[in-house]
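Exercise 3.2. Students should predict the tertiary structure of the chain below and write it as structure tokens, then compare their answer with the key that follows.

Predict this chain's 3D structure.
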Amino acid sequence: MEVQVEGIVIPISHPEKMIWKEAGFTKADYIRYLLEVSDYLLPYTKDRMLMYWLYPHGMHQPKVEKRSRPEKAPEWLVSTFYKEKERILLHDKATLLWLANWGAIEFHVPFDQYTKPDFPSDLVFDLDHSPEEFGDVLEISLVLKKVLDGLGLTSHVKTSGKTGLHLFVPIEPLFSFAEARRVNQFIAQYIQEKYPGKVTLERVKERRGNKLYFDYLQLWKGRTIAVPYGLRAIENALVSTPVTWEELSSGFHPSDFTPSVVLQRIREKGDLFATTHKIKEENTSRVYEILSFTKKA
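Answer key:
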């Protein structure tokens, strides 16, 4: 099997290999999905140093985290040097498919771009719970939206592709990670104090009990998050999917968002994660005001 994109031929080895066995999703299915979704996925990896996961012995075995350019990577694959290592920049379809053929199952990106390191382009909150308690994730995410609305911050949300939701507030890259975390912490502590029986800020999983983990700490230099429209390495081949606030109010489960469903949603709704420059400008102004308030508090 070969795929030609942007004038480059990518040989696909073992296209019949079953990657997501429970979903009956082969390597060829994976390549076809990525090719169809690439125009929507790639804007969120542009100028960000890629982290990707390999599962050399299958998804039920330990994963291998990769950040550096593989030795066998073709010359045309774009990369940049960072801390004396060559890091991949996922800018094009050919690179996306080459990595997928090489074994990359999940794609993750940092919160900052390599062109302006240490200045995140979003405030990000990660709300996570068990699959059985996903209703709490929906509930608290709507509470969070109400709080953000009250602060004058426009937000959008996607499923993690596993058991949580990722909520983003797009901003201009003008704040350090420390400043962004101060805003995140201010909001997270308010919600935890309002819902102490449901929400915890405890990062150690064993100490959380049966509470929803409100993660405001992931937003930091060197840490990453699953890219929108990317598949996750879990049994049913689920996708990290942008959703509307109306859908959250109506209710859903992350297991609803399989590759075929996501592709149909894109055809009908376009990119729900797209952000106008005006939103970034308005959010940035409000973040300055919040930082000023937290300094006085």
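Discussion points: The chain has a mean pLDDT of 94. The helical segments are 27-41, 93-102, 134-150, 177-194, 245-250, 259-269, 277-296.
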